[in-house]
Amino acid sequence: MSPSQRSIISGLLLMSVSLCCSKLSCKEGHSGPTHESMQAVFDREAFRPAVNLSNPTITNISFTLYAVLGVNEKTQILTTFLWLRLYWQHEFLVWDPDECDGVIKISLPVKKLWSPDIIVYEFVDDDVSQACPYVYVNHTGHIRWDRMLRLVSACNLKIFSFPFDMQNCTFTFGSYMHTIMDVRVSPALTFQEMSRNSKRYLEASGEWELVDILGETSILKFGVDEWDIITFWVVIKRRPVLYVVNLLIPSSFLMLIDILSFYLPPHSVDRASFKMTLILGYTVFLLIMNDLLPSTANGTPIIGIYFSVCLALMVISLLETVIITNVLHHNSMKYQEVPNWVRVVVLKHIANLICYRWPEEIKAPAEPQKDELDISNVDSGLWIIQPASQTPAQDPPRSGGAASLPELQQICQYLGDLRAHLTSKHKESELLDQWCHVGYVLDSLLFRIYLLLISCYALVIISMWCVWINQS
């Protein structure tokens, strides 16, 4: 060690001894220590205020969580506003209140004094909050520094249970440069007191509410150096009312309308049009509500899966309508008989399985007896038309009968064509009724399966959310 370095160290030690052995002086008629007596302390603002530098300076830390300003799930950043309070001991700022007109506390500019370099290790942005330029110092040298801190910190956000999610973020306070040999940190209040004070301010503040503040002190090792730190766990819970009203309830209404659309006549094309319009409306709803849903690369919230499944169920519902419409119209228009296996499987077993109640068939009036053409009595080219049920009348005169024969033949041809057309219509009506019965049974079956899927899905989602609510 050079002589110049020895002289500097000796001078510092002499100054420390002189400061520790002498208190700040006060002039008669003046309140508090004089500026001259504190100038020596101000000149040593760059040095840690300890008489024995081998003894660490103890810094007490407490904070009040005043507001949760924002949660960015995509960038995994939590923005909060804290009222931070630091306490430490300045061994050179000591005076006797009796000699200083009873003054026990004064305020001094923080830039004139040494202050511990306490930071939050999770800090990811500059502090843009308003700085407090003064500290309070009492006659024993105890300093209190209140700071307003806008804290932008990294936090591992888990949004799977959104909007009933609960976040646990970590705030780690410690010195940036001073190791455990120079600065020690400890909580100024108990963690329960910090939590109680914060809840008082966050009780009616914004989207988030404070659940609890926990913490512990520990030692951070990096190589051969050690730092004293305090780790706080801030547990916050989201208030889900906004998202339940704006997301879940409208989606549930649209799903309810989709279920009620099964009561529309399945043979009507308006049912398919209605379902397509409903799907379009649900898609627009998802696009509008997309800004309210959190997005992150770590996973997808269950509410996003819920919306996707709801949309898929609506598409399945439309597909069911398309199938039933095809059964009711396409097959009946081809005049195809219902296959025997369809009669057995659908109209017998499936109908009994789902307890399908057949609609009351309208009984057709008794078919009148058809007048058959009796053309047996023909003589000399004369055709006699009379009902088969009646007693044959006497033969009319044979004269002039040949003149009406072409007209009678044409009438018989017309009657035959009419009978064939009526028979074809009757057969078509029977086929249409058969396929309608098949379509109604299948529609009832698919409707019950659709209701079962939606009910199971709703029970699973509601149960999961109820568990999360109870856990919070």
Automatic annotation (TrEMBL):
Topology relative to the membrane: Multi-pass membrane protein
Domain Neurotransmitter-gated ion-channel ligand-binding: 46-240
InterPro entries found in the cross-reference section: LGIC_TM_5-HT3, Neur_chan_lig-bd, Neur_chan_lig-bd_sf, Neur_channel, Neuro-gated_channel_TM_sf, Neuro_actylchol_rec, Neurotrans-gated_channel_TM, Neurotransmitter_ion_chnl_CS
The protein's name in its UniProt record: 5-hydroxytryptamine receptor 3A
Keyword Disulfide bond found: yes
Recorded GO CC terms: postsynaptic membrane
Gene Ontology molecular function, alphabetical: extracellular ligand-gated monoatomic ion channel activity; transmembrane signaling receptor activity
UniProt-annotated location(s): Postsynaptic cell membrane
Transmembrane segments annotated in the record for this chain: 241-264, 276-293, 305-328, 449-470
Reactions accelerated catalytically: Na(+)(in) = Na(+)(out); Ca(2+)(in) = Ca(2+)(out); K(+)(in) = K(+)(out)
Limits of the Neurotransmitter-gated ion-channel transmembrane domain: 247-461
Signal peptide: 1-22
Keywords: Cell membrane, Disulfide bond, Glycoprotein, Ion channel, Ion transport, Ligand-gated ion channel, Membrane, Postsynaptic cell membrane, Receptor, Signal, Synapse, Transmembrane, Transmembrane helix, Transport
Organism listed in the record: Cyclopterus lumpus (Lumpsucker)
